[in-house]
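Summary of Year 1 activities. Much of the first year was spent building the evaluation harness for sequence design. The harness presents a backbone, in tokenized form, and records the residue chosen at every position. We chose the following record to illustrate the format because it has been used consistently in internal testing since the harness was completed.
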């Protein structure tokens, strides 16, 4: 074998060893979270801060809350970060998660076309507003995806005494951003978290028509997936992420995220 060939082989082996070592040292966790935390831009703001502090990369699977919890049940994520408290408590109660910690909140709003065919603008009773939409047969776009927003919507319909159905009620099965896009095109009323609404640019004639109802409160929680069910869960790094989110630094990073000077999420781990 020639000197040149031996040199090439030795170099290839050294490069392979270096690449393998670098891959082995790479630290990342997988977080199943909601479309609102992703599409609002929050993760784009806070995750680089967390990585700079810890060296841990966070890879996000953005789904509706129901899907995110199912991802955790399958062990396809190390952490879930979602917003449907009853479903989160059930997730932990069934042994799929270790502990639920509250992180932050914002609120939901009902948005709709500027001409407001159901006549609900300015109200602060969300269930009453939905009943007026149903009575008027005004088009309503539902995410229909078992997300936290969808679950909140269904609870409001139940309170309103309405089982929504018919041509006026459109179940889309899409995330919040696409649902808002469709609502703007129809146009239609829909329920959205305020953070995604503030970051949404394609509003056309959509406006906030109902807000301020205490029932529109929107709490987010974070849970480590149970390593007893899924031994491959990265307990140390997943716990580091959770601990950072509820730490003063993490809470401040969440509070600092704004669009157009308006705060999108309000940290409340310190008070819980």
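For this record, the design step produced the sequence shown next.
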């Amino acid at each position: 074998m020639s000197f040149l060939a031996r040199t090439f082989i030795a170099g290839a082996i050294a490069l392979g060893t270096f690449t393998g070592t670098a891959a082995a040292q790479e630290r990342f966790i997988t977080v199943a979270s909601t479309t609102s935390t992703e599409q609002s831009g929050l993760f784009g703001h806070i995750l680089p801060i967390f990585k700079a502090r810890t060296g841990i990369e966070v890879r996000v699977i953005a789904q509706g809350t129901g899907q995110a919890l199912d991802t955790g049940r399958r062990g396809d994520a190390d952490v879930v970060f979602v917003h449907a408290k009853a479903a989160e408590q059930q997730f932990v109660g069934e042994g799929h998660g270790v502990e639920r910690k509250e992180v932050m909140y914002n609120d939901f709003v009902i948005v709709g076309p500027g001409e407001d065919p159901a006549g609900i603008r300015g109200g602060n009773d969300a269930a009453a507003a939905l009943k007026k939409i149903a009575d008027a047969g005004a088009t309503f776009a539902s995410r229909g995806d078992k997300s936290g927003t969808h679950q909140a919507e269904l609870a409001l319909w139940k309170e309103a005494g309405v089982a929504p159905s018919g041509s006026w009620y459109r179940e889309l099965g899409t995330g919040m951003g696409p649902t808002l896009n469709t609502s703007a095109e129809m146009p239609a009323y829909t329920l959205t978290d305020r953070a995604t609404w503030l970051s949404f640019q394609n509003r056309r004639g959509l406006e906030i028509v109902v807000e301020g109802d205490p029932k529109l409160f929107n709490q987010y929680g974070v849970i480590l997936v149970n390593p007893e069910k899924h031994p491959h869960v990265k307990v140390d790094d997943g716990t580091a992420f959770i601990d950072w989110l509820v730490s003063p630094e993490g809470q401040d990073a969440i509070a600092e995220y704004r669009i157009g000077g308006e705060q999108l999420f309000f940290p409340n781990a310190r008070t819980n």
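The longest helix spans residues 3-25. Quantitative recovery figures across the full test set are reported in Table 2.
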